[in-house]
Amino acid sequence: MIDTPTVTVEFYGMPRQRAGRTEITLQARTLGELLLAVQTACPDLTLLEADGRIVPHIRVSLGGQRFLTDTAEELLPGERVLILSADAGG
Known about the structure:
The chain is α+β, with helices and mostly antiparallel strands and about 90 residues long. It has one domain (about 5-85): Beta-grasp domain (Ubiquitin-like (UB roll)), CATH 3.10.20. The protein is about 20% helix and about 30% strand. The protein is built from 2 helices and 5 strands, in the order βαβαβββ. The protein has helices spanning about 15-20, 30-40, and strands spanning about 5-10, 25, 60, 65-70, 80-85. It has a 5-stranded mixed sheet. It is globular. About 25% of the residues are buried.
């Protein structure tokens, strides 16, 4: 059996305020599993629509290198996922 990867999630902007923390470390195989785990750990932060899509006011980045939209995206151990407001920046 393959171990579930441990992933660190960093929060920026309004998601940080709603999460009440700067980061959290969780275990998840896919982005969807990770976002669901974040919502469970941070109940004031909504990341997923009822149909499983990422809410439109949130952006999710893998290590600050690329944005993710596919909740089926597989995660690797030690990856860092950034959650920020869609309107962040200038």
